[in-house]
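As a warm-up, study this chain.
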Amino acid sequence: MKVFTKKIGMTQIFDKNGNLKPVTVLELSKTVILRKKTIAKDGYSAVLFGRIKENFIAKKSVQGQFKDVSGIKQVKEQRLSDDEISKMVDGEDVLISIFSEGDKVVVSGISKGKGFAGTVKRHGFATGPKTHGSHNYRAPGSIGPTYPQRTILGRKMSGHMGATSSKVKNLTVERVEKDLNRIWVSGSVPGPNKGCLMVEKND
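Now compare it with the structure written out below.
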């Protein structure tokens, strides 16, 4: 089951063997099960769940679909088996108790935007000589032969970098803070601090 989380930031901890580990602190946002979809009614089995924020005014289209729940800021759908869906209840909160230390999770979100970037930063191109009058220090170089008189699609060139969907797999839950509704996962995750991320147990 996926849940919405907010990225608090990075820190470091010592494990049982005294090794220093970088970790990211994630705070679980209020996630509510909005609707269950079944094969008999919808043709496939899935669950709709939403991120709730107090005093948030949702779009009228969302308000019309889910009249019993207020403050819906974001809605996602996840395909699950009939057995998993049968255990869920409409309007039920997804609690932090689904996570425990040692669990493997998948974190997905939107990566940090870097703006317009050159080929060296964006694609790792090598630079030219820096001395002896060279004018090709960070230039992109040739983009291909004359034919077919156009730039080939997919050519690695300068352009907008970042702000794309990103996913990190096999992260370990190092610590669970139930009183603060937070989990600590190993390593780094996409996006800026205070950004919204999706966390799913990697069963």
